[in-house]
Design brief:
Layout lengths: L7 H24 L6 H35 L1
Length: about 70
């Protein structure tokens, strides 16, 4: 199976969809009366960054394993 890179516009579209969903969730929470202190925002940012970093690490590892299997074929 040859390597196929997704077009850039697809990645940009999914990024915008994710940002829009995050904005909608934040707006809904604010409308419901939830507020987050600066410390809670920093903790949430750190948690999300850690989760996304771990996800990126997993994706890179899977990609390298798949690439090495293709080279062996």
């Amino acid at each position: 199976m040859p390597y196929r890179q997704d077009p850039t516009w697809i990645s940009a579209t999914w990024g915008r969809i994710g940002a829009a969903l995050l904005l909608l969730v934040a707006t809904a929470l604010q409308a419901a009366g939830y507020t987050f202190s600066l410390e809670a925002q920093e903790e949430l940012f750190n948690a999300i960054s850690t989760i996304l970093g771990a996800g990126a690490l997993i994706l890179v590892t899977v990609s390298k394993v798949r690439e090495s299997k293709k080279l062996n074929e």
